Amino acid sequence: MALMTYAEAAALAVSEAMRRDPAVVVLGEDVGRGGIFGQYKGLQATWGSERVIDTPISEANIMGAGVGMALMGMRPVVEMRVIDFALCAMDEIVNQAAKNRYMFGGQGRVPLVMRMPIGMWVNSAAQHSQSLEAWFAHMPGVVVLCPATPQDNHDMLTWALQAEDPVVYLENKELWTLQGLVEPGPVQSPNQARVLRRGEHLTLVAWSAAVHTVTRAADQLATQGVSASVIDLRSLWPWDRDTVLADCARTGRLLVVHDAVQVAGFGAEVAATAAQMTACKIARLGAPRIPVGYAASLENLARVGVEEVVQEALALRRR
């Protein structure tokens, strides 16, 4: 067990996978120098430029090459730098990677890991600060993972690198320097949500960086006599309905929180399922439907903060 950052944990997972399996390769912009967040630091020096491949600035080209590699038996890690840039490769993702197994009766498999960092990147404005996880959860044929801690970034990426289907792997841009203890070892499927604490009065569900926001909110709520469960969903598709539904049925209240725009966010799927399957009272909280501004004052308008979660939880508690 070692103390490392979210970025270092990811680099360790990729390096371990490359050591186990010569079919694992990395391709993308800036990966040779370690990636813009350090998530590939030292890998090209260890594994060489034929396995950690710097590419031209063409996301469609990068993703298309990754899909072709996967179909030929390799296990590529395709780096999109930020999810915002993956929009240039949507045809390759949506119509090629996601659909190949179905359209060809399982003859073709695309064991591809698409790394697309989500969330705000301080002072990076509207084209570098988006959380678009709901787009990919909506799309049949892919797994969608959102690690919130260094340990999960190691374990979930390790699992993704052994999966037989394409994985949309969504790390948060503001978590790269987050430190935590990481213990390499056998990993389990990330499809099970993690209950971080069990409360009596309401259930808080989140993923990615929002997990840390709701955990701090739960601390504040506890000082006001409100006991809240905190659930880290971890996987958006498939998502762990059983854990969420059991807890919110027990507490009678569910608040789903995410950093993505609230309108049509994945929180709506969680809320609608809970409404269909339980009698609990439900609320959801996400960002306003506005572009993220460059100035700090504008950027903060698009953030979901601890105080907002506390106030929404208290309002739900009174219902």
Structure in words:
Helices cover 38% and strands 20% of the residues. With 319 residues, the protein is α/β, with parallel strands linked by helices. Strand 2, helix 2 and strand 3 form a beta-alpha-beta unit. It is globular and about 60 Å long.
Q: How many individual domains?
A: 2
- CATH top-level class of the largest domain: Alpha Beta
Query: Any guess at the CATH architecture of the largest domain?
Result: 3-Layer(aba) Sandwich
Secondary-structure element series? EHEHEHEHHHEHEHEEEEHEEHEHEHH
Mean pLDDT reading? 97
List the helices and strands and how they pair.
Layout: E1 2-5, H1 6-20, E2 24-28, H2 43-47, E3 52-54, H3 59-71, E4 75-79, H4 83-86, H5 90-97, H6 100-103, E5 113-115, H7 133-137, E6 143-145, H8 150-160, E7 167-169, E8 179-182, E9 194-197, E10 202-206, H9 210-223, E11 228-232, E12 235-237, H10 241-251, E13 253-261, H11 266-277, E14 281-287, H12 296-301, H13 306-318
Parallel strand pairs: 2-3, 2-4, 4-5, 5-7, 6-7, 10-11, 10-13, 13-14
Antiparallel strand pairs: 1-8, 6-12, 9-11
